[in-house]
Amino acid sequence: MIDDRVRVGLLGCGTVGAALVTLVGEQAESVAQRTGARLEITRIAVRDPGKERGAQIPKDLLTGDAAGVVGAADVDVVVELMGGIDPARKLLLGALEAGKPVVTANKELLAAHGGELLAAADRAGVEVEMEAAVAGAIPLVRPLRASLVGERIERIMGIVNGTTNYVLCRMTDDGMAYADALAEAQALGFAEANPAADVEGHDAAAKAAILAGLAFGCDVSADDVYREGITALRPVDVDFARRMGYAVKLLAVCERAAPDGAQRGGDGRARDGGPVISVRVHPAMVPLAHPLAAVRGAHNAVFVEGAASGELMFYGLGAGGRPTASAVLGDLVAAARSVLARRHATDGDGGAPVRAGLAGTHAGRPRARIRPMGELQTQYYLNIDVTDRPGVLASVAEVFGTHQVSIRSMEQDGPQGGVAHLIFLTHTAREDGVQATIEGLSHLDVVQHVGAMVRVAGGEDLP
Ligand SMILES: NC(=O)c1ccc[n+]([C@@H]2O[C@H](COP(=O)([O-])OP(=O)(O)OC[C@H]3O[C@@H](n4cnc5c(N)ncnc54)[C@H](OP(=O)(O)O)[C@@H]3O)[C@@H](O)[C@H]2O)c1
Q1: Does residue 156 sit in the same domain as residue 114?
Q2: Pocket of ligand 1 contains residue 105 by CB under 6 Å
Q3: Ligand 1 contact, 323 CB (< 6 A)
Q4: What pLDDT, in 10s, does the model give residues 375-410?
């Protein structure tokens, strides 16, 4: 009789870890009935085992010895919910080397060392499950790794950070200033006391790196991702966008790009076989009719565009203890099934262990080739404050023309107190030309302030 218990070592028992303990308690019976795997949390590593925790956390399972949990004979699967790079990286490599599948929600670690972890998993013939690392409860990683593994993914575009989406919604809907909207998000618990990882785009960049790696079958790190946050946006920017028929959203975009800098198309591959891609996180103007413009508050939404599948949309809660734990539990069940499959193969008939689940799908991933941001072509929104005097418009327009950036429309607010506020929307232009225009404008003596530049989502396709 083969033992159907799958023993779980949990590293970290904070917001997500504690929710997972509760969820396993609620769902273990149903999971056992449906899958044949009886989940049992046998050890929990935390930083401070003496800390007061809810009644649902069995105190006798707590330990400060995380390495001991990984190596324990009564741990079959390691679930890492502690966050950060170290010691999480070493612990997970240790688990994989010991032939134990791992489950992690740690986007920071995966974006920095995902290739190393996946290679170690391939060597050991076990899995690294990571559904919760991107977009919380929303099933997105597994569809990319399994359902869509035969699909040629052309583009992924979405809202993957709820904090910034909440702030931008408040600025758009209620005209709030950025600082006030952020303070409200912090008061409501949507934003950390130190919000830098969210508002400067680091969190979204880590998720974009993970998604790009999965979608294009290559190694992408957070350093490969072009990143801009939302801190430079002012109410005037979101207000103008709305009047023009757009919502401003912080978007993560991963797309194939031809090596010559064309937007997409061709075979999108460099000569060494690694795909050439563009991976970026920045505020973007999304047409109000697009479903992404309607994503409210702390929700996430991601569009996946496949050559055969067309557009697929994934939507739901992108963070929070229970939603994230739901994704972790799904991964844990997948890992548990593979543990049982191996047990059946070795204990049952004495044959070689089977390679179950998603193992073996990552060996030899090439490094991604990243298209320089300067080669991006889209439409751009720009605003500047200028001294109100004759000839200003001509000198401003000359800077645009010098860098081959054609102006589609211009609006003027003011003048007030001798200062006029000019808002430009360009035709499709190259990013390096727009950046040179901004640089040129900042050197004009009539320009008092160069405000935010916002790219138009889908602007490459517009006339
Ligand atoms: N919160 C979310 O909504 C969310 C959503 C998606 C993904 N994630 C990811 O999930 C992971 C966990 O997030 P969280 O919000 O649950 O974090 P958290 O509330 O800060 O909890 C972290 C847990 O890890 C433990 N820990 C930290 N360093 C440790 C160490 N060196 N040794 C042993 N234990 C250690 C802490 O112990 P103590 O309790 O003793 O301090 C705590 O129990 C992160 O990778 C995060 O990015 C979170």
Answers
A1: no
A2: yes
A3: no
A4: 999 999 999 999 999 999 999 999 999 999 999 999
